[in-house]
């Protein structure tokens, strides 16, 4: 039976992803002085976590949390400017969930997320999601974001990122993806054969990358490099789902 990893979501995430991302964000969000504090967060120890379904779910949870962290100031401004915060039905214990789900909602252009039949629903996630997506609240949130962008003449929310983070992201996006071969489960030759059967072509170095290509590390033959643009596709290969190739 073919192994698969968690799908790549374009219409929202399962409740467990939001919950775990909120827990991570709760632990890393920027603490502000009492004079600056307008959005209140509860103690991080009060927030439960769910087991990660697979490695892709773990990565998506961390990515969502760190995206919320990057835009924490903007997201808090949107919540305050729209009047969506404070809300008597959303306690401080769920503020981190509110921020994380707001980031995802604006990233989806305020479109409704799809809930799959097999998904395990979490009451807190459902409550916060419904609150954010209510017509009046959603409209006010979108309007608050638009006002921020107009005020700063920003074509996208990336404008609000500090310059140091922008430079880091540009460098990161240009780096090749590296993975090492788990030789306890598969041989190097079998991995190469599998990749070539799937249409990958070996090149001499990362400077020769052209989409479905890979290169072997010159010093470590069990380490492979791929173009950064293939990261999500790689995670859905059986080699990664079966932990025969491990993403670094």
Structural description of this entry:
GO terms for molecular function: methyltransferase activity. This is NSUN7 methyltransferase. The chain is of the alpha+beta class. Helices cover 46% and strands 7% of the residues. It has 10 helices and 5 strands. Strands 2-3-4-1-5 form a 5-stranded mixed beta sheet. Helix 2 packs across helix 4. The protein is elongated, with a radius of gyration of 21 Å.
Secondary structure blueprint with pairings:
Blueprint: H1 15-28, H2 55-70, H3 72-82, H4 95-107, H5 123-133, H6 135-151, H7 163-174, E1 177-181, H8 188-197, E2 201-202, E3 213-216, E4 223-226, H9 231-235, H10 238-241, E5 245-247
Helix pairs in contact: 1-2, 1-4, 2-4, 3-6, 4-5
Overall number of structural domains: 2
Low-confidence stretches: 1-8
Helix content: 40-55%
Shape: elongated
Give me the strand/helix succession: HHHHHHHEHEEEHHE
- Rg measurement, Å: 21 Å
The residue-averaged pLDDT reads 86
Strand order of the largest sheet: 2-3-4-1-5
What is the terminal separation in angstroms? Answer: 26 Å
Counting H and I runs of at least 4 residues, what is the number of helices?
10
Topology, number of strands: 5
Sheet-strand content, in percent, reads 5-15%
What summary fits the major beta sheet? 5 strands, mixed
Structural class: alpha+beta
């Amino acid at each position: 039976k073919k192994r698969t990893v968690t799908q790549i979501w374009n219409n929202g995430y399962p409740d467990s992803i939001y919950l775990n991302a909120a827990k991570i964000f709760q632990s890393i969000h920027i603490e502000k002085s009492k004079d600056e504090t307008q959005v209140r967060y509860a103690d991080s120890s009060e927030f439960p976590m769910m087991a990660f379904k697979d490695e892709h779910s773990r990565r998506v949870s961390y990515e969502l949390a760190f995206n919320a962290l990057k835009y924490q100031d903007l997201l808090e401004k949107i919540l305050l400017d729209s009047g969506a915060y404070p809300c008597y039905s959303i306690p401080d214990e769920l503020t981190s969930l509110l921020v994380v789900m707001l980031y995802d909602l604006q990233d989806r252009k305020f479109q409704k997320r799809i809930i799959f039949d097999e998904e395990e629903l979490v009451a807190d996630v459902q409550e916060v999601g419904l609150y954010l997506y209510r017509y009046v609240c959603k409209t006010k949130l979108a309007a608050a974001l638009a006002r921020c962008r107009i005020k700063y003449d920003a074509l996208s929310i990336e404008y609000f990122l500090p310059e140091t983070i922008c430079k880091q992201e540009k460098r990161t996006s240009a780096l090749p993806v590296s993975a090492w071969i788990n030789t306890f489960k598969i041989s190097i030759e079998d991995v190469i054969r599998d990749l070539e059967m799937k249409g990958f072509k070996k090149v001499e170095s990362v400077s020769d990358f052209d989409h479905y290509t890979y290169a072997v590390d010159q010093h470590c033959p069990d380490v492979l490099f791929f173009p950064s643009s293939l990261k999500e596709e790689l995670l859905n290969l059986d080699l990664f789902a079966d932990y025969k190739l491990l993403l670094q």
